[in-house]
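User: My collaborator sent over this chain with a note saying "see what the structure looks like." That's all I know about it. Can you take a look?
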Amino acid sequence: LAWAREHDAASVLRLAVALSPWWRLRGRLVEGEPLLRAAASQAPPGTDGWCAAWYWLGQAAMSLGDFTAALGHFTMVRDALAGRVPSRVLADCLASRCVAQSNLGRLGEAIEDGRRALDVARQIDYPAGQAQALTNLAIAVYYANEISDAVDWARQAERIDPERIPGAIARIRSTVLGIVLIAAGEFSAAERCCTDTLALCRAAGDPPAEAALLTLLAHLDLDAGRLGAAAAKLRESIQMATRIAEQTELLNAIDNCGHLCTATGRWAEALTLWAALAADTERAGLTDPQEDALRRREPLRKAAAALGPDRASEAERRGAAMTLATAAEFALMLTAEDQPALPGPGRLSRRERELITLVAQGRTDAEIAGHLTISIRTVRSHLDRIRDKT
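Assistant: Without extra context I'll predict from the sequence alone. Here is the result:
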């Protein structure tokens, strides 16, 4: 491509379009975007090369988290193809409009575009387009909190012969299946799906999908109480998403880092992260999936109760002032290996566990002393040791 820009202008657009799938696979679409945009600007509007270039520019915009710009690019191509014979690029643009509109909260239009993409792909016998359309329909109904339908769409996508579709699309459809299986409470199936797909991503060198899968597996670790494993996966996901400028995956990882903080009693840090998440989501004009909002509701209540109104407000103000890059740096600090975490029950002695159970029941020091037949001073000594350990 660099050589063609100097010596063979007619080849520049073809080369830029041909490189775009590889730029996406390696997490380098943002790096390739200026080259692709320059090439697209030289092409006559509405031509095949122009349509393909603007489709990939839309993909680059989605990687940057600019779903409004992405929707504009996909719409330009759709309108240019109006009245023409159905094609692969039309199916791809309609399926991508489905994703963009889902993230912008336009769910009715998203589902309509997804169905149209599926119809076009079936009409021209385009298995990769069918897989993308079914996967993106699963995303749209997931945003609408219609979890059972989301699982149905995702499973339909999984039934398409993997030999007939590119590996990148196969990995994306499995990643989305993992998302909706978690939402459906099918945790064992979700963990198998995500673990297997992560191995495929690492073998293929697919960092965008790898970052998403690490966050999903961290989500499962959090639900299972495997906090150290969750922190390690979130840290790796944040580092990878930062390196390749995948804004959506950064938001997902920061959200789960908030849950990690509540699981380890770091209430102010959780509120700060979630306030940063809310601020960046609002700035980008994105919608918050209902499933994610519902999962956050009880931890938010607990954090606010633990901190009190003044400290909670201070933590939220701090987060709201953060850029996404700052929030990502903060999340990396919170997932560092040297961060203290609450110990499991194994670090407390039998007597300490017995005593802390009485504390949790609301007993006073005097009542605990009477129950255990020890002095109040001994009760307080035990409590001091428990505080030191935790």
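A starting point for your reply to your collaborator: The two ends are 58 Å apart (CA to CA).
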